[in-house]
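Protocol step 4 of 5: obtain the predicted structure for the target chain.
Materials: sequence only (see below). No template structures provided, no constraints applied. The aim of this step is simply to have a reference model before the mutagenesis design in step 5. Sequence pasted as it appears in the construct record:
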Amino acid sequence: MKGWLIAYYTLFAGIVLTGALNMLQVHGGFLTNHAADIVGPAWLYVAARGRHSAHGRPTLLQRTVGRSPAFAASFLFAASALTEVSQLYWPRGIFPGRFDPIDIVAYAGGLALCYAADTRWPPVAPPAAIDAPPPAA
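Step 4 output (structure tokens):
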């Protein structure tokens, strides 16, 4: 879980950094062109799966989008790719910009890494949950 918490905050920092650079109109090559396309969906994956926190009530996002690694990765990839394709037909719409197929590859790459890590290292129940008595019926 600690690794996922580090990933959560690192990806969030990446989103903030790339967003700030884009808002300041800095031309930073890969950092401003594709880094956000990798870290954005990846951060959403970690948040949707609830991998960054072992406590608290699952959110609506975690109960719906994050219900399984495959569903979370597929849903977030489709949503991300749809925003990119919308730029082809509606360049000044809700997701303004220029269509770039490399962005779709970036979405897939970030999500594939998260999916692989999530399925390779499934969550482990915290020790308190193992020792706790079963819930009353």
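Step 4 remarks: The chain has one domain: 2-54+61-124. Residues 2-54+61-124 form one domain.
Proceed to step 5.
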